[in-house]
Amino acid sequence: MIFCLGFVFSCSNDSDDSETITVRVDRSANLLATGASANDILSNANFDELRIEIGFVTGFRPTQTAMNNFVDFLRDRTFKQDIEIIYTELPSPNEETLVLEEIADLEEENRTAYNDGSTLAIYIYFADAPSDGDDLDEGLVTLGAVYQNTSMIIYESTIRNLASRSSLVSVTELETATLNHEFGHLFGLVNLGTDAINDHEDPEADNHCIVDGCLMRAQLQFGATARTQNLTGKASTIRSACNLNGNSVLKILESNVSRGFAAVPLLDAECLLDLESNGGR
């Protein structure tokens, strides 16, 4: 299915007649399954430029340091050196919680960056509301999720609330860990568009790594169940490949810092080997 965005221009001629020209933007290449664009992101075979649109609710823009860290991560792991970040400030949707269907609708309304020529476009939405799948009683809060090949949601309000409870981990570190982990899935990790050279996928957690200490470790995420998704009576027909568990991430980052390590985990050797085999580095 092809989704089109139309822009209308009015042109006048000598007889004062007007002609309407509609320019259609083909969105279909940006509406595929998570991991479908892994090779295009990692290599320069089809696209040698990367444009990342950051749609953020007023007051919830990500920290500049986290964005710098994120761009460094992309340059380290892909062959994309021409990376452009554009920021789009958006009004609040005024929702207490968000399901992925609502997030996808907000993307359709507000996203302006789509694949164009040799430029591959990514959209990341920084929300002012938590995930509808969160269960505070069980300590399950979501930091981020991926739901299409070039689409990601970061629950910025949840990140800030979580960071405020820690004396060891900052907002920037939580943002960086969330961005890098979720983008790892857009890279196709693990077995999500980038095949594993050696078997290192957790048998109990699809598309996550079993190697201890890896950025893509399964313990960083939890799967949204029907029970948690129905806490507020909302329903979503869109499934995320990963829901990043905030409390698990916080514990891991705090543990790293307390042992004198960098807070944000790195990709392990197996994940790096997979990326290299699919056009990355």
Considering DSSP H and I runs of 4 or more, what fraction of the residues is helical? 25-40%
Specify the CATH homologous superfamily.
Answer: Collagenase (Catalytic Domain)
What name does the CATH topology carry? Collagenase (Catalytic Domain)
Structural class: alpha/beta
Mean pLDDT: 87
- Per CATH, the architecture is 3-Layer(aba) Sandwich
Write the H/E string, N to C.
EEHEHEHEEEHHHEHH
List the total number of helices: 8
What's the CATH first level? Alpha Beta
How many β-strand stretches? 8
Q: Extract low-pLDDT stretches.
A: 1-15, 222-235
Q: What Rg is obtained from the alpha carbons, in whole angstroms?
A: 19 Å
Report, as a whole number of angstroms, the end-to-end distance: 33 Å
Q: How much of the polypeptide forms β-strand, as a percent range?
A: 15-25%
Main pleated sheet: 6 strands, mixed
Task: Please state the overall shape, judged from the principal axes of the Cα atoms.
Answer: globular
Which strands sit side by side, in order, in the main sheet? Answer: 4-3-5-7-6-8
Q: State the domain count.
A: 1
